[in-house]
Specification:
Largest sheet of chain A: 6 strands, mixed
Largest sheet of chain B: none
Strand content of chain A: 15-25%
Radius of gyration of chain A: 23 Å
Largest interface: B-C, 42 and 36 residues
CATH class of the largest domain in chain A: Alpha Beta
Chains: A alpha/beta (about 450), B mainly alpha (about 300), C alpha/beta (about 350)
CATH architecture of the largest domain in chain A: 3-Layer(aba) Sandwich
Helix content of chain A: 25-40%
CATH topology of the largest domain in chain A: Rossmann fold
Number of strands of chain A: 17
Shape of chain A: globular
Distance between the termini of chain A: 41 Å
Strand order of the largest sheet of chain A: 4-5-6-1-7-8
Order of helices and strands of chain B: HHHHHHHHHHHHHHH
Oligomer: heterotrimer
Strand content of chain B: under 5%
Number of helices of chain A: 16
């Protein structure tokens, strides 16, 4: 098993695309299981036994789980294909994610992001007619919670034992180090290192990727003035915890993925009888492609759309003002682009996310709602954004930050742990640890 | 739990609307509640059903066909001229028309053109061809076609038999076969389907070709009912078919389609006009009220859709 | 078909055969509907009003039980077909149709006939043989214009022809009539032709565009709704005002009157009276009353001559078309004339 790492825009996804046959290489050749692909033609991945789990989900949300399995298995046809497809995907799910609780007949669009990802991963490992030689996983754990990630990693060990080669692309360096035999580091489209996993440390990897290892995460938190204005107040129904959000606070939302954190953020945004925001809110989407970017717009427009009303004069938008705003944020958070007038889709995933940050921060909202926005973002960008969040909080903004990564949660002043749509625990800053969150997530499970 | 309930309700919405409309019509006009009455009430829905299914097929991949009305008119004009005079040539022309539809689909895919613009352009092409084939209103539908549409089916009137059969076939094709799953998948997430090794070009061309076949059936049945044609005969089918398909549960965004719903939607659109006529509503208001009914049903559906996501 | 209709008459009106000119069979329980496909211009508005007048009087007098009118929201044959099917379902005894298409309604009209409903079409007529047609002699309307010009200009002259909406059968027929007239009378020649779409503004624009290329024009033949626009174009170009045939629109008649009072301008004006709907109504009533009516009837055009100009202007609503009133007696007379091959009576001027 090979782990592939690199900062955003290093060329990992392009490389994956070439292997998967969806991107045509300009030069060079690929050989796998006797099938040779040359540049200027898509690599016949399927016949070479290569399956891929792409970074952006590649399921059709309007189809059922079984029908999605049909898409990749050409042999599922004729009478009874639905049942056969259902059986195939169900057995794969059972093998990789025991206790997944997903019905093969359910429509993918109804599943949470995490569950969709488990379906997609299982689909790649599901049995089919052809040989299964290599599975490429591009950020497979980005939408998975810790439990499911663990299941996946232990399955990968089993797959390895069965002779299936795996390429694992991930920003979670710990996963790579734990699971991979070899680690390949990419930078600016080239491979800069290829080492055995045992020999490398986390710090070395980060250095190879082009970032200097930062200081200890979190850093000193300033004591919050308890008399800071309250921006959000919520009474949680039946047994849940209440919530008070003061200016300058960064409150994390944790717990297992898909337990109501996103719903909660949307409730704050829309306002409900038991949840009243006393200041304007801005939402930073985690599901970039669906909820976040306007794919046809330029970077400028994507960044400035939240501030139109402030930047407009008498109903007209000054292009200059918009551009200035975009340039300013490009400088401040380091959006890597030659020109802010380029289309948003010219940016890599992490940089698109930065634009979304810029959009929210450029608006006059005082409460910022972050829906796991750092999914699939490299370590460097994460650090930059964390610093930004701290700086903005110090200016009197408040953040509600849903994240699936404990490391990020630990950055927060407080953390609310969600289970089944409710807040079940509130952890003070120094109690936010992997164990603490897991313990809180399952605490009332036993009681209930 | 409430998700499945809401989804079921949503799927039932066109059926409920149809039942309500039929009930109201029977109440206003008991004469309609007979073999003869139902036949009269519904026989013009046959071509609309086919046109709506054609529209639904194009909606499957997230496109909109603004040319279907012109196309159906063209087919009707061919049916009363070429098909009557020299059947072999007529069939050839209709086959060519289906091929043209497939080519439009291929063009939309290859050049990444907005389908709405291409099909709008095609609507003028079809209209122009219809005028060339039949410069002034007239022509005669072949006797066999007229006879087919006058068929007195036992017990249940022909329009209902046709609607049920067509709904069943389309449902099976789109919802139960693996072929249909791929077609719908292409509307839901084209990138994913392409990555799984399917050609979007083939898929889009196939869907458009199927839509063309439905359009041909629509034009033939329309010609069979009216016994003659003119180049303007079916222009309003464009909007009717869109309204019917959307009413029946299809989404503009592609992927989510419902053949049975589309057939029911087409029947609802047909009956809504009759219902208002039986109410003796001032004609100036009729079109507005028809629109209001449509908006009401769509609003209901959107509400159920929200419940479904909750 | 004949036999079937004969049987229908026997049922509907007993033995009431046409003894006198007006069939007197009892139709007090009968219901007649008007199916109209379009209400978007002044002619159609006047037509609907004429129907309304006659229908309400007839209902009050107990001649028929009910005579509502229905207009489709969109000018589409399929929609009108559905409308007629609904009328059959509602059990009307007769349906008077101003059809969106001469052919596209045939299937539905046949269904109506098969259900025993009397179908009378006028203005926009249908070709289905089982229906009655009140045919307007459009070709005659074109020919009459040239006939009139031959009287006024014995030596002939150069004509400008303003046509209607391209591709519509009415335009074709009027044009044919004009061509026939030109061939019949020596010395006339069509020097130019434009499509005025029966609309003053379009006619004015088109004529103005063509005028510079034309020699001296002696007369303008028109289709109605375009004469005033032509006059404006000639005036703007500073050309001699030719003899322009008018089409009974209020602005055309007003201009004619002003010219007449100023310089004795002489012309004629002709069009179809919107009260054609009344002929449709009375024809349907007469058929229901048992009269033996031929399938193809003729409606004369309403001709306004110099002498009657003031009288007709009084009968022309502002922004509308000169109208007349057709009575039951007039209709019976017309039916009789057609049956016996006699000339059709002139449009009543009262």
């Amino acid at each position: 098993m090979v782990g592939l790492v690199g900062h955003n825009g290093a060329g990992k996804s392009t490389f994956v695309g070439i292997l998967a046959g969806t991107v045509v290489a300009d030069e060079g050749s690929i050989e796998a299981a006797g099938v040779v692909g040359h540049g200027h033609a898509p690599f016949p991945a399927a016949s070479a036994g290569v399956r891929t789990v792409f970074q952006e989900l590649s399921l059709c949300p309007n189809l059922t789980v079984a029908e999605n399995a049909r898409l990749v298995h050409a042999d599922l046809r004729g009478w009874g294909w639905r049942r056969a497809a259902g059986r195939r995907i169900a057995s794969a799910l059972d093998a990789v994610f025991p206790g997944h609780g997903i019905d093969a007949g359910s429509v993918v669009g109804d599943l949470s992001l995490g569950r969709r990802q488990t379906v997609e991963i299982a689909r790649a490992f599901s049995g089919g007619p052809g040989p299964l030689g290599l599975v490429i996983l591009d950020e497979p754990t980005s939408a998975l919670d810790g439990h499911a990630s663990g299941q996946l990693l232990s399955w990968l060990d089993k797959a390895k034992a069965r002779g299936i080669a795996v390429v694992l692309v991930s920003h979670r360096l710990n996963e790579i180090l734990a699971a991979a035999d070899r680690v390949v580091v990419m930078r600016d489209g080239r491979i800069v290192a290829d080492e055995r996993a045992e020999g490398v440390s986390r710090e070395r990897l980060v250095a190879l990727m082009g970032h200097v290892a930062g200081g200890t995460a979190g850093g000193a938190r300033e004591a919050l003035a308890t008399d800071a204005p309250v921006l959000l107040e919520g009474r949680e129904a039946a047994g849940g915890h209440g919530l008070t959000l003061r200016a300058g606070e960064v409150v994390g939302l944790g717990g297992l993925a898909g337990h109501g954190q996103t719903r909660f953020l949307l409730d704050v945004l829309d306002g409900t009888p038991w949840l009243r925001a006393k200041a304007a809110c801005a939402f930073i989407a985690g599901d970039r492609a669906n909820d976040g970017v306007f794919p046809l717009w330029s970077i400028v427009d994507n960044a400035a759309v939240g501030a139109y009303s402030r930047l407009g004069r008498g109903g007209f938008l000054g292009p200059k003002r918009l551009r200035d705003l975009a340039e300013e944020w490009r400088r401040r958070i380091g959006i890597r682009t030659p020109d802010v007038d380029d289309g948003i889709l010219t940016l890599s995933g992490g940089n698109q996310q930065k634009v979304l940050f810029a959009r929210a921060l450029a608006s006059d909202a005082r409460i910022l709602l972050m829906d796991d926005p750092m999914r699939g973002v490299d370590v460097g960008t994460k650090r930059e954004v964390q610093a930004l969040v701290r700086a903005e909080a110090a200016k009197g903004r408040a953040f509600l930050w849903y994240t699936t990564e404990t490391e990020e949660l630990a950055q927060c002043d407080r953390a609310l742990v969600f289970r089944a749509g409710r807040i079940v625990a509130e952890l003070p800053g120094d109690a936010i640890t992997e164990e603490g969150v897991i313990e809180a997530s399952f605490r009332d499970h036993a009681a209930a | 739990m409430s998700t499945t309930l809401a989804r079921r309700l949503r799927a039932l919405l066109p059926a409920i609307a149809l039942a309500l409309l039929l009930g109201a019509i029977f109440w206003l006009q008991p004469r309609a509640m007979s073999y003869f009455g139902l036949n009269l009430l519904l026989n013009l829905s046959i071509p609309i059903v086919f046109a709506t299914l054609s529209q639904m097929l194009v909606l499957t991949i997230g496109d909109l066909d603004l040319g279907i009305g012109g196309f159906v008119s063209f087919v009707a004009c061919v049916a009363v001229t070429l098909l009557a005079d020299s059947p072999a040539f007529g069939v050839l022309v209709l086959a060519g028309a289906v091929l043209a539809y497939a080519l439009v689909g291929a063009l939309v895919q290859l050049r990444r053109l907005p389908a709405i613009v291409v099909t709008l352009g095609m609507s003028f092409v079809w209209f122009g061809l219809a005028v060339i084939v039949l410069p002034s209103p007239g022509g005669t539908t072949p006797a066999w076609l007229q006879a087919a549409l006058r068929l007195k089916t036992p017990l249940v009137p022909l329009p209902i038999v046709v609607a049920a059969a067509v709904a069943a076939v389309a449902w099976f094709l789109m919802m139960r076969t693996s072929f249909g799953a791929v077609l719908r998948g292409a509307g839901g997430n084209p990138v994913a389907v392409a990555r799984a090794g399917w050609s979007l070009l083939t898929i889009r061309a196939t869907l458009y070709a199927l839509a063309g076949c439905m359009g041909v059936l629509s034009g033939l049945t329309l010609a069979g009912l009216s016994t003659s044609a003119d180049a303007n005969i079916a222009l309003r089918y464009t909007l009717l078919s869109i309204a019917g398909a959307i009413l029946g549960g299809s989404e503009f965004t592609g992927g989510r389609v419902s053949p049975v719903g589309a057939v029911l939607g087409a029947l609802v659109m047909t009956l809504a006009a009759s219902f208002l006529a039986f109410l003796r509503l001032n004609p100036d208001w009729q079109i507005g009220v028809q629109g209001a009914i449509l908006i009401l049903i769509l609003a209901l559906r959107a509400g159920l859709g929200r419940l479904e996501r909750a | 078909m004949r036999v079937l209709l004969g049987a229908a008459f026997a049922v509907l009106a007993g033995a009431g055969l046409a003894r006198a000119e007006v069939a007197s069979g009892d139709t007090s329980g009968k219901r007649i509907a008007l199916s109209n496909n379009f209400a978007g211009n002044s002619w159609r508005q006047s037509m609907l009003k004429s129907w309304e007048e006659t229908a309400s009087k007839a209902v009050k007098a107990g001649i028929v039980a009910e005579a509502p009118s229905f207009t489709t929201a969109e000018n589409q044959a399929t929609e009108q077909a559905a409308q007629i099917q609904n009328m059959i379902l509602e059990g009307f005894d007769a349906i008077v149709v101003d059809a969106a298409s001469p052919t596209a309604l045939n299937g539905t009209i046949k269904e109506a006939c098969d259900a025993g409903v009397v179908v009378v079409s006028f203005d926009g007529i249908v070709t289905e043989p089982c229906a009655w047609r009140i045919v307007i002699d459009f070709a005659g309307m074109g020919e009459a214009q040239v006939d009139y010009l031959a009287k006024r200009l014995p030596d002939g002259g150069k004509l400008l022809e303003i046509r209607g909406l391209a591709g519509v059968s009415v335009d074709d027929e009027i044009h044919k009539g004009i061509v026939e007239g030109v061939e019949k009378h020596e010395g006339f020649e069509i020097a130019g032709s434009v499509h005025g779409d029966w609309t003053q503004t379009v006619a004015q624009r088109e004529v103005a565009g063509l005028l510079p290329t034309l020699p001296k024009i002696d007369a303008v033949v028109t289709q109605g709704g375009d004469g005033y626009g032509a006059a404006q174009a000639f005036k703007a170009a500073g050309r001699d005002m030719p003899l322009i045939i008018m089409g009974n629109r209020s602005d055309e008649l007003a201009w004619w009157k002003a010219q007449r009072d100023q310089n004795g301008y002489e012309t004629m004006s002709l069009s179809i009276a919107p009260a054609a709907a009344q002929v449709g109504f009375w024809t349907a009533q007469q058929i229901l009353a048992g009269s033996d009516v031929p399938k193809d009837l003729l409606l004369p055009t309403l001709v306004v001559e110099q002498a009657d100009l003031d009288k007709w202007i009084a009968r022309t609503p502002e922004g509308g078309v000169t109208n007349a009133t057709y009575t039951q007696e007039w209709t019976a007379e017309m039916i009789d004339a057609v049956k016996n091959g006699k000339p059709v009576p002139a449009t009543p001027s009262e």
